[in-house]
Amino acid sequence: MRSATMGFAVLAVTCVLFAAVVIAQQAPMPARDTLPDGPRIFDSSRRGPSGRPIPGPQFRVVPMKGLSHPYALAFLSDGNMLITERAGRIRIVRNGVVDPVPIAGLPAIPNRNLQGLNDIALHPRFAENKWILYLLTDEDAGALLRIEPVRAATAAER
Predict the structure, then answer these.
(1) Which of 15, 73, 109, 131 has the fewest beta carbons closer than 10 A?
(2) CA–CA gap between residue 81 and residue 61 (Å, rounded)
(3) Are 150 and 136 in contact (CB under 8 A)?
């Protein structure tokens, strides 16, 4: 009986060692956060119920590096973009390049779990007053959602 137990133990150790060798020889997984270097073109064409193609427009997606957990964006009249980052920053993108300095004037915003800076919208009279409205989740302050303004005159015009 003791030799049967010993044989089973040897078989188990052999299987574990074999599995370790097989796993060690597999190719490493590519990095998950790797973005393509250039724009990608996507086709929104689809097929109808009969199988005939229904043409749709193509759209171009340009990945941007230098952002941490981007959430929402707003387009300015000059073609630049404002992008929110969950950590509490609003970044401006000029000519496809992210400005390394975020827009100033936001309060401390929690950045844990799914709390943080979320949506963004331009005030209807943004051209006159430079107000940006942003939405944040802050359960610590007793509010699930808050909408607050920030004046972006200096940041959007730099």
Answers:
(1) 15
(2) 14
(3) no
Longest dimension (CA), the chain: 90
Tokens 């052999």 label which residue?
Answer: 14
**C-alpha–C-alpha distance, residues 124 and 132, integer Å:** 9
Fold of 65-157: Thrombin, subunit H (2.40.10)
Q: Give me the percent of the chain exceeding a pLDDT of 90.
A: 4
All residues at 6 or more sequence positions from 132 whose CB lies less than 8 Å from its CB, including other chains = 74, 82, 90, 103, 120, 121, 122, 123, 126, 149, 150, 151, 152
pLDDT tens sequence across 50-70: 888 888 888 888 788 888 888
What is the rounded (10 degree) CA torsion for 44, 95, 90, 145? -20
